[in-house]
Specification:
The protein has two helices and nine strands, in the order E-E-H-E-E-E-E-E-E-E-H. With 170 residues, it is mostly beta strands. It has a nine-stranded antiparallel sheet with strand order 3-4-5-6-7-1-2-8-9.
Amino acid sequence: MRPIGATAIPVVAGAVPALGAELPSRKAGLWELKTTFENRNGASPVMQACIDASTDQMMQSSTGLYAQSDCKRDVQKSANGFTIDSTCTGGGKTWTVHSAVTGSFDSAYTMAVTSHGDSLPGGRMNMTVAAKWLGPCRADQKPGDMIMGNGIKMNILEMQQRGPSQGAPR
């Protein structure tokens, strides 16, 4: 069993260097990530991500997608996985994130995330990310490629190189 840093959606929890336990990279390949939100009706967002060790490392580093946020993170090994507690500030806002990660991180894992902060509707958000390894990335994919449920494809490594002022790819 290997732990995961962070998925694309709750990446704030994995956007800074770990304290306590370390979170090694997920198994390289194509992962499907299904996110469900508490108290929300409608379809759950599903995304696919082609990852490798450097993609996961970027998502866990202080130069990751949320480098403009100042986060303090504590990662602890629990009886059946890991817990991640983060406190972040950015854009004049502060929020906390508690994540519990369980499963076999070579094939499937679940991450339950509770976030609190003034910028969240009702001050709180609960979500669950269920991920499963689908196999090797397809021939037309490269590490960092993310395919959203609506078919939009972007590469998070290229987005990081562009920086926040250049925006997301079209």
